[in-house]
Task: inverse folding
């Protein structure tokens, strides 16, 4: 169909059931539309998007009655693709279609002003017709898609996303910032629902990731920059310096115990309840099981600092080595070779990205009212470590204040009597549902408190356990069973948050609470107080989101494109999110989201190429003066100044990057940039129509 | 707020404060007033009489009637300092609380501030929000300093165990106060002040719990006494203190007065003398006990003799 | 409603309370917000404030958490005779621990202000106000002897000894709500 054919416009007005017809007099709008220039057919229908509705349009096109289509209906956001397709099916270039939004922007907004709504609908239709007269045919474009995916974060969510994609044949690059994958789940003892041992279900998956031929595991690595767009992201990943030769390191652990006391720092894996050396393997089941040196902690024994110097010699002529390198059986910890503190930069080319960077739990020190300095006030995550077989007390329940004594004795190989708790008290919503910190509910703490209480009570029936809840939230499959079981076990559940903890002189704690059911303040003398501190976004998440060009919400978690319909998508096409990086959730939900994100990435990349709308901007080189105003304005970095044959610099737009936002088009002082589908003439015709309403401009 | 900082700096240089008395101190416990008047010149702090001052206003009066009226009465008092470019200083927690709450409200609510100034205009005054009320404990701790206090005393409190009572308005709501404890649930300022005199001032479990004074006592004395009793028993049991020291005149009255009543009713079988910190400091400096610590219900002769042992 | 002896019914008929609010065209929540308890609508009834409140500890009925709930339900008349708000020591420990930044102390005092409008005010408070107006001191005892005993002048350098200052204070008070309410004589 050629462009010079005179426009014959069909206008199709939708009732949208009562949604439009309830406020807009559709018949009146139809009568009016007939009077507009170049309009040859006007029809109205109950639901234009239904099969028979679309058929009305198609038939008129096939009959040669119309060659431009205007649908006055709901919103282009959801329905434009449907009507475009109808035009295309009937043989009309689908960009000969224009939509008039008379529902979201008219009937819904003016529901109680019928007359004015009808008048406004007429104006909107007239503007659409004015634009339709000037429409041009456009052709879709295609881009090639790289069938590789980067997953950021190796917690349970990242692990599942990586495995699903790898099993489907996609190459996966899994980028994890710490030395091992596993994330927070690796720290947990047993997990609700069903109380499986966390390590038992997690470790095999971690090993599978490490051994998978399609997975390129990049631990101790962080994303530095991302360029490009859907299908073709160019990523730079920084592999941090491990200061241990991983090709040689067998994970034997010989170096772990030789670090001197001065180089010992709180162990992250045990949530600070024990110390680790500067050279460390995060935990026994780490994958990969390799040592790294924490240079902030390392005191560089014997001046051994990786600067490339040969070791000094002792009086007896033997080289002076650091303890770690001395004991290392494979030479992996050798400190003679120079090691670049900046590590190594790896470049990746991927078609899609899944962000699964998880969460951190809030530190107890924010909560002064709960005596946070006291060793027997701990976070729930510390409780997980305290009851875990790989924890500081090897799973034996003792008072946290006794841990140093126990570890000291263990080091000396002595036996020691340590105090065990008789009473444990849990406090809910610490930092969650709190205007001073996080207003959201952290969603998993009610359940993990019940879980921990239940595990403890079943193992040590003599324990007195109290849980202070504001209200118990157990909205999941098999969840409320935990609550009932706890009650049956004799765990004392108190409805009411605690207001303070005051240490007693003997290492115990006085918890001041309130029982809303009895309506009285209550006090509990306890050996351990467990604070269910909030789940919050990783502190670096904002920075990462900025690098990726995706958004975080007010609470700091990653923002999904649409809470209900596109829960794992972001506003940037090709970037998906999963797990606690998107918001607090439990393992079942994290896994479900990870699998959804993997599936979304697959369905995006599997066809190998992707249609992109031609509604993008283009520079008219004749008109461009090369002023360069547009270049920094483009939010997608699609514009650059390039030298033309005549030696002059002109602006050029990369069609693969342009999203058609139109910022450059509006800004160009020479009117040299055309946004296809929204040309000057088209948009001006619309504006004129509205501006001169009710007069209809002739040309 | 910038300008308020400046006032603080100036005051620091000259160390001059308007002595804000309130009601309880001049009329009930004038020995506390006398102690203040004695100790500060020794410490190089000049006191202004703050002539024409009134009730702060205390909680049961204007704060219970109307916020603007509360702030206006408070602002008139604050003006007396502001006009001279100095801050106020009080030895009463209620004054400290009421004046600073009022100031905080005015600083955060321009409408309130202008309503208040409309009232002040009727008496030819205007409050800019600069002058604030400092607590005597903070002035001693921060402006004077523990070293200077140590140098100033004649008697040290060896072998004396003190139970401290900073009092609620010394701590909460921390948002409104010009000086704040690092941990408002584990206050250390008064403990350190006592330790500077050579005493032990250990933590005890109910250290931050309310003594039950004020409105609670005037509304229901019986209920109020259960709180003092609980507190005193905790002090006795946990640290067996020789002396209770507070920096609040209300706490002083409650702990001193209610204690004796409880004892007379047979509800308490021990007695621990109570002093305001400024009184204790004045005694350590060697001032006349009759003048600086002459008014009490629970006997304090024994402890005073121990302090002035020679 | 089934009346209990204390004046607060044993069974609260919430519909009747709602109806009363509608008839009198006043929402109790809005009244107390006007009186300074702006944030009470953010309360989630967690009980932290009650856990640390001295009033709850010694057995007063309508301490912070419960009072807030009562107000949110629209109760007012039922509360007018209750002494609890007048017992609040303004310690503000509740304010310090409230996770919703409600400032329950402000609620207690807003209720006092609401009660004052209904002339539900304890005698002691009236006396305090009278003394404040007469002398500039709410707690005014003629402690002259004590002052002399400790070597101080009979009168402190306050409104007690400064006529102009007392006049100023009175001028202020006469132009406040205190005068409008007419709780105490304020003639001179
Ligand atoms: C005390 C406690 C007990 C719990 N108990 C249970 C339970 O019993 N059952 C249950 O279902 N759920 C439980 N949960 C919740 C559970 O921990 C989470 O649902 C789950 O761990 C979320 O997994 P994730 O992969 O989303 O995040 P994470 O486990 O946090 O993993 C994120 C990973 O990303 C990495 N990372 C972070 N930032 C970057 C970056 N910039 N670049 C690269 N990598 C990065 C991290 O190092 C980490 O390895 C509990 C939570 C807590 C706090
Ligand atoms: S040089 Fe080796 S042994 Fe010494 S502190 Fe560093 S890591 Fe530990
Ligand atoms: S899950 Fe439970 S404990 Fe955690 S924030 Fe929500 S309500 Fe509070
Ligand atoms: S602490 Fe705050 S949120 Fe909790 S019940 Fe009291 S006022 Fe309400
Ligand atoms: S300020 Fe009042 S309501 Fe709040 S804790 Fe203190 S006495 Fe209770």
Result:
């Amino acid at each position: 169909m050629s462009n010079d054919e005179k426009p014959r416009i069909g206008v199709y007005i939708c009732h949208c059931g009562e949604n439009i017809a309830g406020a807009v007099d559709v018949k009146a709008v139809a009568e009016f539309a007939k009077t507009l220039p170049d309009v040859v057919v006007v029809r109205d229908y109950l639901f234009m998007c239904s099969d028979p509705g679309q058929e009305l349009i198609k038939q008129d096109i096939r009959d040669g009655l119309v060659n431009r289509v205007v649908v006055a209906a709901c919103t282009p956001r959801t329905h434009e693709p449907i009507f475009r397709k109808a035009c295309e099916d009937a043989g009309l270039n689908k960009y000969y279609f224009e939509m008039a939004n008379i529902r979201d922007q008219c009937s819904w907004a003016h529901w109680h002003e019928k007359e004015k709504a009808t008048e406004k609908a007429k104006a909107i239709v007239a503007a659409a017709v004015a634009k339709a007269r000037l429409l041009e045919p456009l052709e879709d474009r295609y881009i090639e898609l790289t069938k590789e995916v980067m997953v950021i974060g190796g917690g349970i969510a990242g692990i599942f996303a990586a495995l699903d994609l790898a099993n489907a044949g996609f190459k996966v690059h899994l980028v994890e910032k710490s030395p091992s994958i596993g994330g927070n789940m690796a720290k947990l003892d047993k997990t609700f629902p069903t109380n499986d041992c966390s390590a038992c279900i997690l470790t095999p998956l971690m090993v599978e990731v490490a051994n998978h031929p399609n997975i390129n595991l990049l631990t101790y690595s962080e994303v530095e920059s991302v360029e490009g767009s859907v299908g073709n992201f160019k990523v730079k990943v920084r592999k941090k310096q491990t200061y241990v030769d991983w090709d040689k390191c067998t994970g034997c652990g010989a170096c772990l115990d030789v670090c001197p006391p001065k180089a010992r720092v709180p162990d992250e894996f045990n949530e600070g309840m024990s110390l680790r050396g500067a050279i460390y393997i995060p935990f026994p089941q780490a994958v990969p099981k390799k040592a790294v040196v924490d240079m902030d902690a390392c005191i560089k024994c014997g001046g051994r600092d990786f600067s490339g110097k040969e070791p000094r010699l002792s009086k007896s002529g033997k080289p002076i080595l650091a303890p770690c390198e001395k004991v290392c059986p494979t030479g992996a910890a050798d400190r003679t070779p120079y090691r670049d503190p900046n590590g190594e930069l790896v470049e990746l080319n991927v078609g899609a990205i899944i962000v699964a960077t998880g969460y951190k739990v809030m530190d107890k020190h924010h909560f002064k009212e709960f005596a946070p300095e006291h060793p027997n006030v701990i976070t729930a995550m510390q409780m997980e470590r305290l009851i875990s077989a790989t924890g500081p007390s090897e799973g034996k329940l003792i008072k946290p204040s006794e841990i140093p004594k126990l570890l000291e004795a263990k080091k000396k190989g002595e036996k020691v009597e340590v105090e065990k708790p008789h009473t444990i008290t849990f406090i809910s919503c610490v930092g969650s549902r709190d205007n001073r910190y996080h207003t959201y509910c952290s969603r998993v703490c009610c359940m993990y408190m019940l879980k921990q209480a239940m595990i403890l009570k079943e193992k040590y029936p003599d324990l007195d356990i109290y849980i202070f809840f504001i209200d118990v939230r157990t909205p999941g499959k098999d969840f409320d069973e935990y609550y009932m079981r706890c009650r049956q076990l004799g765990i004392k559940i108190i409805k009411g948050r605690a207001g303070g903890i005051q240490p007693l002189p003997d290492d115990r704690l006085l918890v001041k609470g309130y029982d809303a059911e009895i309506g009285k303040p209550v006090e509990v003398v306890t050996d351990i107080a467990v604070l269910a501190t909030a789940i919050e976004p990783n502190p670096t998440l904002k920075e990462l989101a900025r690098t990726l060009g995706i958004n975080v919400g007010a609470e700091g978690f990653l923002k999904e494109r649409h809470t209900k319909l596109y829960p794992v998508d972001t506003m940037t096409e090709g970037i998906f999110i999963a797990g606690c990086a998107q918001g607090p959730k439990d393992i079942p939900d994290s896994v479900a989201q990870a699998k959804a994100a993997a599936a979304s990435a697959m369905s995006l990349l599997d066809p190998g190429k992707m249609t992109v709308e031609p509604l993008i901007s283009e520079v008219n080189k004749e008109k461009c003066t090369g002023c360069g105003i547009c270049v920094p304005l483009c939010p997608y970095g699609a514009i650059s100044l390039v030298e033309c044959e005549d030696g002059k610099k002109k602006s050029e737009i990369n069609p693969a990057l342009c999203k058609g936002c139109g910022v450059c088009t509006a800004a160009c002082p020479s009117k040299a940039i055309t946004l296809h589908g929204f040309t000057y003439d088209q948009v001006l015709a619309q504006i004129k129509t509205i501006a001169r309403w009710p007069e209809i401009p002739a040309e | 707020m910038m300008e308020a900082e400046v006032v603080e700096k100036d005051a620091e240089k000259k160390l001059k404060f308007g002595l804000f008395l309130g009601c309880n101190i001049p009329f009930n416990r004038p020995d506390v007033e006398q102690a203040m008047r004695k100790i500060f010149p020794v410490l190089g702090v000049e006191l202004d009489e703050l002539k024409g001052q009134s009730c702060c206003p205390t909680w049961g009066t204007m704060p219970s009637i109307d916020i603007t009226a509360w702030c206006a009465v408070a602002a008139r008092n604050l003006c007396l300092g502001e006009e001279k470019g100095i801050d106020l200083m009080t030895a009463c927690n209620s004054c400290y609380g009421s004046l600073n709450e009022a100031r905080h409200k005015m600083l955060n609510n321009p409408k309130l501030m202008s309503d208040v100034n409309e009232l002040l205009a009727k008496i030819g005054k205007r409050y800019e929000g600069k002058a604030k009320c400092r607590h005597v404990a903070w002035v001693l701790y921060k402006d004077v300093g523990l070293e200077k206090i140590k140098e100033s005393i004649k008697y040290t409190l060896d072998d004396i165990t003190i139970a401290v009572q900073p009092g609620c308005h010394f701590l909460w709501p921390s948002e409104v106060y010009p000086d704040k404890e690092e941990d408002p649930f584990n206050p250390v300022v008064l403990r350190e002040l006592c330790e500077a005199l050579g005493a032990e001032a250990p933590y005890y479990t109910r250290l931050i719990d309310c003594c039950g004074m004020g409105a609670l006592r005037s509304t229901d004395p019986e209920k109020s006494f259960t709180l003092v009793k609980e507190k005193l028993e905790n002090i006795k049991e946990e640290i067996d203190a020789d002396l209770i020291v507070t920096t609040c005149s209300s706490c002083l009255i409650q702990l001193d007065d209610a204690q004796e009543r409880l004892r007379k009713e047979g509800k308490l079988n021990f007695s621990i003398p109570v002093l305001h910190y400024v009184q204790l400091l004045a005694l350590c400096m060697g001032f006349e006990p009759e003048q600086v610590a002459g008014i009490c219900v629970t006997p304090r002769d024994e402890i005073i003799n121990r302090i002035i042992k020679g | 409603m089934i009346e209990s002896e204390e004046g607060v019914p044993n069974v609260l008929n919430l519909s009747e309370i709602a109806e009363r609010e509608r008839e009198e065209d006043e929402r109790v929540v809005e009244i107390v917000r006007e009186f300074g308890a702006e944030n009470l609508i953010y309360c989630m009834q967690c009980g932290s404030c009650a856990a640390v409140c001295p009033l709850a500890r010694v057995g007063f009925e309508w301490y912070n958490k419960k009072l807030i709930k009562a107000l949110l339900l629209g109760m007012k008349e039922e509360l007018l005779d209750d002494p609890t708000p007048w017992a609040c020591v303004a310690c503000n420990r509740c304010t310090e621990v409230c996770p919703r930044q409600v400032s329950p102390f402000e609620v207690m005092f807003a209720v006092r202000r609401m009660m004052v409008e209904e002339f539900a005010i304890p005698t002691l408070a009236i006396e305090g106000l009278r003394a404040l107006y007469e002398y500039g001191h709410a707690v005014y005892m003629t402690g002259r002897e004590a002052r002399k005993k400790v070597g101080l002048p009979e009168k402190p350098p306050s409104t007690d000894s400064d006529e102009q200052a007392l006049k100023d204070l009175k001028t202020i008070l006469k132009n406040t709500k205190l005068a409008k309410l007419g709780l105490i004589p304020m003639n001179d």
User: Anything to note?
Assistant: The interface with chain C takes residues 369, 429, 433-436, 470, 495-500, 512-516, 519-522 of chain A (CB under 8 Å).
